[in-house]
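call fold(seq) -> tokens
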Amino acid sequence: MDDMDYSILMLKTLKEFSCRENTDKTMIFRPHPESCWENLPGFIFHTSYEIFFQIDGGCRFVFPHENIVIHPGDVIIVPPGSPHKEYAFNEDGRRFRNLLAILSASSLTIHIAESHRPRHPSWKPDPVSVEHVKTSRYKLYWELAKNAEHVVHENKLLLLRTLQAMTAMFRDDLEVSRQARVAQSAQEGHYKVDMVKALISWNPPPDMPTVSELARRVGLSANYLSGLFRQHTGEPLKTYMNRIRVERAENMLLSTNKSIAEIAWMCGFRDAAYFSRIFERYAGIKPFEYRFRHTLEK
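ret:
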């Protein structure tokens, strides 16, 4: 499949779910309060909502207190701070393939991931097509996701309708964003930059790949990738990576009671002092001031 085929698959998957009537294949995981935001050995967590739409094959999610297996047609939301492991597998002769929407209060990334070897299941295959959706509705999506997270288990219809409303808007924004991207640039290398952004967003903060690791994953040298990234985004790659870390730290400062030092380490900074300097550079205030100010606003 080429990039256009994957874009069509994204739109098709979102459209099919937004029109669904069956509630049996819609589920949501609620993290156990004692394990939420905990850095458990072997587990990862993200500071964004992850919404998985399984297309082919399946995926086993291992959480500290339960396992969930999804199959073609299943949808699951994993809220921020939920420690988990993901194991992809092939099923009924079809290789693993899913669509994942990664949603924060300031961004939406949608990508397709698949296993390239039908007979060899792999753990968390890399994305093969990525769309960074530009929209004015990030905060609306965030609020809808929070509402979906707190829908009672018994009210599957309300959960389905909430997710369908989000998915229909995802599809509209994805189509507009995709057309704008195609119109603006068919420049060589743009796809590589999107892949790098996806790899950064898909890894938990402490495990964010280095520039050299990213370059290896997309088949370029580190220097060439850095130049290509700046050419297409106007921003140095390391600057972008630090900005993403700071955005994740902002979320944790407001969502958890963890100390500044803990958040620094969990967002990939070597120490609290360095974290504080970088945070102030991007946010304009120090981490403790950011937390205090937003606590007062509440």
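Residues 87 and 123 are 5 Å apart (CA to CA).
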